[in-house]
Amino acid sequence: MNHHTVDILAFGAHADDVEIGMAGSLAKWSAEGKKIVICDLTEAELSSNGNVETRKKEAKTAADIMGAVDRVNLCLADRGLFLTDDHIRKIANVIRKYKPKVIFAPYHNDRHPDHGNCFRLVQEAFFSAGIRKFEVEGDYPPHKASYLYQYMINGFASPHFVVDTSDFIDKKVNALQSYESQFYIPDGGVQTPLTEGYIETVTARDKLFGKEVGVKYAEGFLSSKPLLLNHNLFGEGL
């Protein structure tokens, strides 16, 4: 009996984090019939360009491109993602609601503190969501996801495994281009690191990861524990 409501629950501090790190993989898994939910922790209200309303529309468009079945926002404070009991319980509630098999969060050592803090919060909630007596607002039963993986946003770390996204690079670029307020300078907007060829930088990283394993494009991930290989010793993938 399948106790999981969704296969994959991907967390980001801001809408566009998940896209930068793993839009290709999410689009690929969605095409394979996997059920995917995205949870953004903040409304990114401190972003230099755009506004909350625009960002939500962009996030919805991107989620549709990637094939997510749902996208939720916890509306925690941008730059306020600190390791508090309240934050952990809110995230644990989302985990219990969707009962994912696999959870993704940003790489813990990203240059943006919100991204590393997002991982630490999710790591805590990943554990606590499975504890029966750990109370959250919702009345969902405890849930222990099987895996917690990290995706990269700004950094370039040595991945523990990569996913071939060659056939989905266009969907990734389309998902990123949905965020017009972030990756292009809007009227009255300002230059930021994101408006300076950021999408090209991301696809270049995916190209480099792909080159490592002999495919055109790949996305890199890190695992908190060793990956178990049963029959895929010869690189058929996870």
Quickly describe the structure.
By secondary structure, the protein is α/β, with parallel strands linked by helices. It has a single domain, classed as Rossmann fold (3-Layer(aba) Sandwich), CATH 3.40.50.
Structure description:
The protein is of the alpha/beta class. The chain has one domain (8-223): LmbE-like (Rossmann fold, 3-Layer(aba) Sandwich), CATH 3.40.50. The protein has helices at residues 17-31, 52-66, 85-98, 113-128, 169-177, 180-183, 198-213, and strands at residues 8-12, 36-42, 70-76, 102-106, 147-151, 161-164, 218-223. Strands 3-2-1-4-5-7-6 form a seven-stranded mixed sheet, with helices on both faces. The two termini are 22 Å apart. The mean pLDDT is 93.
CATH architecture: 3-Layer(aba) Sandwich
Q: Quick one: how many beta strands?
A: 7
Q: How many helices in DSSP terms?
A: 7
How would you sum up the major sheet? 7 strands, mixed
Instruction: Write out the CATH superfamily name.
Output: LmbE-like
Key descriptive features of the protein:
238 residues; alpha/beta; Rossmann fold; seven-stranded mixed β-sheet; 7 helices; 16% strand; globular
List the helices and strands and how they pair.
Elements (H helix, E strand, L loop, with lengths): L7 E5 L4 H15 L4 E7 L9 H15 L3 E7 L8 H14 L3 E5 L6 H16 L18 E5 L9 E4 L4 H9 L2 H4 L14 H16 L4 E6 L15
Parallel strand pairs: 1-2, 1-4, 2-3, 4-5
Antiparallel strand pairs: 5-7, 6-7
Helix pairs in contact: 1-5, 2-5, 3-4
